[in-house]
């Protein structure tokens, strides 16, 4: 059996010792042996099933939300886009709170249970809000809007606890220190995203049609039922899971905060000559009283351990990568808003009697991921592994950067396609006829959606693995919450940019870039702006990624010095 020695290589060890998986227990609180049936792909399959259902439910709401807001709720295109971005932003930021609760108090399993219940309740109330028919009075209509958005934000709160914990809990089923399980964990992130995209594709192809052509009550009610079934499936796997166990029960968030407090209090003190990573050396001041600080005690607020300082540094190293991915998230927000409105103006017919709902065009994203991800995992990675010697083929940051490049290209393509659409509008005299279908095939939009999907294979999955792998073990829910918060802040930024542009370009009776009549709007200008911002972002990302030191490299460097 293999065990990892101090140099990071694997050697032969006692099989009885190696059979015990460090840091985890089974549902009865017993230490887990590798030869048991706990963990690995069997357990991960239950968790992946839950995520498929959760994504089905979430995208069952978000993918077609702009149609509901501009239809039954009667909002303008710009207002609906701003509301969607605000809600998406909240849904992506709340996982920071959910991760804090999970990592500090409840644990991932209990947080998933509570969040699942809230999810089902929120979806049920959302269904009820769609079924209730308002009376003619403005007060009853306003009450319906308030009820709808209250239900919508309850779903966001539920996702805040569910999203960071489910994926971290799934990755926890594999031991990252074991050579075979480590490879499986890397593949887990690929197949995780593959599976949730299958759920998303089903949502976009079936559920959006029901919402547009049958009724919204059924369109919101089906995700509620699916989420309830998924909750039962998750419970069925309870006896097979590996649960995190730490002998040191101190709050991981408190440990990190203690480092900054201790470094500030010891600012004038001499930095001790203790072996730690060289970057962010100002945090070494937290060691000024010695490297034996007691976590969670009063002494820990003035003197911290070397482990605490390294945990704080690990989180701080993530900040430049986090910041330089925000414009990617702004671009990501457009697929469910302006791409959908763009698609609503063109010919989406298949045959003489069937027309695809505009939101269903997002299926191109999911299908491109479903097709390309197995190629990436089974063909690209083995070839790249032989060339580079990296277990994952290419590094996580290289993977993220290439996806950002594809995202930039997708914005250029989207701008060119929109220019083509506006030219057809001009040629056929449709500028003041927004209800008339523009004689342009929906296949013109396919390239920008497909590029989005392939970019996600690289950047989205790369970000998930990066933020899980590069944080301390006790903070892995927080790591995935940080990944999600990129898209939360990106959605808020998107909403802010739209609001500024709407005010700047829509005054004095002029049509803004986001006019309700898209035939007089200029989404192409907006896409060019995002392409320029993406270029600047990619340059900054490459600069910071080039100087980034992975955690395992820091650990090995420290061991070499010592």
From TrEMBL:
PROSITE patterns given in the database record: PTR2_1
Pfam families, A to Z: PTR2 (PF00854)
Keywords: Membrane, Phosphoprotein, Transmembrane, Transmembrane helix, Transport
CDD domains: MFS_NPF5
Superkingdom of source: Eukaryota
InterPro entries cross-referenced by the UniProt entry: MFS_trans_sf (IPR036259), NRT1/PTR (IPR044739), POT_fam (IPR000109), PTR2_symporter_CS (IPR018456)
SUPFAM superfamilies: MFS general substrate transporter
Protein known as: Protein NRT1/ PTR FAMILY 5.10-like
């Amino acid at each position: 059996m293999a065990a990892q020695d101090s140099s990071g290589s694997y050697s032969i060890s006692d099989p009885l010792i190696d059979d015990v998986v460090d840091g985890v227990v089974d549902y009865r609180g017993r230490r887990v042996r590798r030869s048991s049936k706990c963990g690995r792909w069997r357990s991960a399959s239950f968790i992946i099933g839950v995520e498929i259902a959760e994504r089905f439910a979430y995208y069952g709401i978000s993918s077609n939300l702009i149609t509901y807001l501009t239809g039954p709720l009667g909002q303008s295109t710009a207002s609906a886009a701003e509301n969607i971005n605000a809600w998406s932003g909240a849904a992506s930021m709340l996982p920071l709170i959910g991760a804090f609760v999970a990592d500090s108090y409840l644990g991932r399993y209990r947080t998933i249970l509570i969040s699942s219940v809230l999810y089902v309740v929120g979806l049920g109330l959302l269904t009820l809000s769609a079924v209730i028919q308002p009376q003619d009075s403005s007060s009853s209509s306003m009450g319906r809007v308030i009820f709808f958005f209250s239900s919508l934000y309850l779903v966001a709160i539920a996702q805040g606890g569910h999203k960071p914990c489910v994926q971290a809990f799934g990755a926890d089923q594999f031991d990252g220190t074991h050579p075979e399980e480590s490879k499986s964990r890397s593949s887990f992130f690929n197949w995780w995203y593959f599976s949730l995209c299958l759920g998303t594709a089903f949502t976009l192809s079936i559920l959006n049609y029901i919402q547009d052509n049958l009724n919204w009550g059924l369109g919101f009610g089906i995700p509620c039922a699916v989420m309830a079934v998924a909750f039962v499936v998750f419970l069925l796997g309870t006896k097979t899971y590996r649960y995190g166990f730490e002998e040191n029960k101190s709050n991981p968030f408190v440990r990190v905060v203690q480092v900054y407090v201790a470094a500030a209090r010891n600012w004038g003190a001499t930095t001790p000559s203790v072996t730690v990573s060289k970057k962010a050396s100002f945090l070494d001041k937290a060691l000024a009283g010695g490297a034996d600080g007691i976590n969670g005690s009063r002494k820990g607020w003035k003197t911290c351990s070397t482990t605490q300082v390294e945990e704080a540094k690990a989180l701080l190293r993530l900040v430049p990568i986090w910041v330089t991915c925000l414009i990617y998230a702004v671009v990501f927000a457009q697929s469910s808003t302006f791409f959908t409105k763009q698609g609503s103006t063109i010919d989406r017919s298949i045959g003489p009697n069937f027309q695809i709902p505009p939101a269903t065009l997002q299926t191109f994203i999911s299908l491109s991921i479903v097709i390309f991800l197995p190629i990436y995992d089974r063909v690209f990675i083995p070839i790249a592994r032989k060339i580079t010697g990296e277990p994952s083929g290419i590094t996580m940051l290289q993977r993220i950067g290439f996806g950002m490049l594809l995202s930039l290209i997708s914005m250029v393509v989207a701008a060119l396609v929109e220019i083509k659409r506006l030219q057809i509008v001009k040629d056929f005299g449709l500028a003041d006829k927004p209800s008339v279908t523009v004689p342009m095939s929906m296949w013109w939009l396919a390239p920008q959606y497909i590029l989005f999907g392939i970019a996600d294979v690289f950047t989205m999955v790369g970000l998930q693995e990066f933020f899980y792998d590069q944080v301390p073990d006790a903070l892995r829910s927080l790591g995935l919450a940080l990944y999600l918060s990129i898209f939360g802040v990106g959605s808020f930024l998107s909403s802010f940019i739209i609001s500024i542009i709407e005010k700047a370009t829509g005054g004095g009776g002029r049509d803004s870039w986001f006019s309700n009549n898209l035939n007089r709007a200029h989404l192409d200008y907006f896409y060019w702006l995002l392409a320029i911002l993406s270029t600047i972002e990619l340059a900054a990302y490459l600069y910071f990624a080039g100087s980034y030191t992975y955690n395992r490299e820091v650990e090995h460097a420290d061991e070499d010095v010592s």
